[in-house]
Fold these 4 entries.
Entry 1:
Amino acid sequence: MRPNRFLFAGAILAGIVSAIVVPARQGYAQQGYAFKLERTTPDARHDPDGVWSDDDLAFIRQLGQTPAIYTARITTPSGEWLLSQTNGDCNMQGMCTALLILKKAGAAAVTMANPQLPLGGTAMLSLNYKKLATKEVDQNGRPLDGSYDVAPIP
């Protein structure tokens, strides 16, 4: 029995396509370090990580809200990164201030970026620790890709 040329050509083409597609997917997974903010301290009166002061949390309460803290953390070769957010500084589109903190053993924590994120949102820290990518919402309610430089903030 003679092999079908079209079947053989199709198998070769499928192999080439999968060789191209698989590395692209692997590359995407390695774009950076992913943060997913989770509500870790509901009804916060004190921030266990020390990012937000007790006065910050009391101010949220004075505005008639129950302060909540959202956090995400990752450990990298450069140290522990903490993304922290409260529900107290949000605009009408639901975009809230967050702080990206770098903690290294034996050193004081350093604030590295202050992005705007949807409450409980996600962010991606680049592999070289220089950019923070976010998914945001603009003033018209449309999705927007945000990008923040990562460097010490005085």
Note: Residues 123 and 134 are 5 Å apart (CA to CA).
Entry 2:
Amino acid sequence: MLRYQEYTWLIGKLNAGKNVNLWGKQDIGKTFTVKNYLLKDITLESVYLNLEYPFSVAHLFDVIPMSFDLYYQQDWQNIVSELSEGFNRLLVIDNFDRLHFASDSFSDDLLRLQQLAKLENFSLLLISRMPLRYFHFPSFANCFEELELNETNTWTFGK
């Protein structure tokens, strides 16, 4: 569980329309914190997608518009335009690292996600084991603020 100071920072960034890469080693509590607390504590229209197998990353850009009640077979630019209107929204993508390993068009996928990251009223929260800079796409990584979960900013509970 993320400590109070970092947790309130994270909520503040997402409510303000910022993008955040929440990263840290496996089993540190990233998914637990987001699913059990963050999604209940924020006031944004939120969608949580987990790229863990058996999710087909080939269908990611069909699932995103459907998750926000949009018609998925329209042009991606139309989808981005529709998502730019209205209230603030949050898209959480868990196990983001898998996109790097499973996508046939990783650079194109990042360009599409970057379009969402640049929207004023749309926040992306990417949960991964590595910081985005490790993917070697600096223009994409620069759209995000980082929060590493580690032993100094989390409460851990015995198993």
Note: Strands lie at 20-24, 45-50, 89-94, 122-128, 145-149.
Entry 3:
Amino acid sequence: MSVTMALINSIGASHLIPFRLRTLLLRAAGVEMNLRGKVAPGVVIRTKSLTLGKRSTINYQCIIDNRAPVTIGDNVGIGIGVRLITSSHEMDDPTVRAGTSTLAPITIGDGAWLGSGVTVLAGVTIGAGCVIAAGSVVTKDCEAHKLYGGIPAKFMQELATA
């Protein structure tokens, strides 16, 4: 983690910093975010490889492990304590299961909602208007306008479309 991101994650993540100032600090650090996006206090962002769309919110105590790019569309709701993890490990060596580090991006489509405590793993795309139930672990892509839940997250129902 760079010194700039370390400062953002300590001082900039404080409850004493207003949303608007936190947005400006993140933008100054190189995070690509719309001025209407909101990042709540206590959010940890590992690198500047984050794109946050218009009117999207990352709620309290989220962890964005964005060593690979994380793209969050417009009007997205990210619940409290969500973890977006772009890293994993090769598991081929039986003597070192947490082998060489691997990275893959995460993409979250416009209008999606991730409930509190959701974990999204590396390489996942969540479609537009998709809802992920609280506490779910998303290991595979999720189609647009559908509800997913569970560990691992599975399709639960179709959602209305415009």
Note: The chain has a mean pLDDT of 94.
Entry 4:
Amino acid sequence: MPEPITLAAISLAGIPVVASFLLDRVGHLLDRRHEDRNFPVVREPSPEQRDELAELQGTLSGVVARPADEVRDDADALAAMDRARTLLEHLHDRQIDFAGERRAPSKYRIRAVVEVDKLRDGAVGVRLGEVRSSASIDAQVKGKSAGGPVVGVQIDSLE
């Protein structure tokens, strides 16, 4: 599960606004009747991404209905918000920041998806020697069974 540290740094009053924004953007992506010229979709979501967005839409609907202080202490809710943002950033090809966050601008984007039925040994979605701290990395490793550890991202050195 990602460590949604930056979302946890948002003020208590800002959490409902962020959750509502993410829910609105996910809904817009899933049910586009008109194009948003201010926030255009650069990449069409894959069928898997559409499924994940639909699941996140349900999760975010529940998050929006909860008190902000409860959401702020819920790692799963923050992780869902973070994942929704990551998908939106990928599909819109732009970084989405909220007031109160201190995220470095992302200059480098890496996305990896590994899907296998059965792994004899372990697997690594993305293995990098040296990475700049301004990189945005999104890795998914999906498998039904594995004979070893499964790692989304392995970084030897962070610059």
Note: Residues 25 and 31 are 10 Å apart (CA to CA).
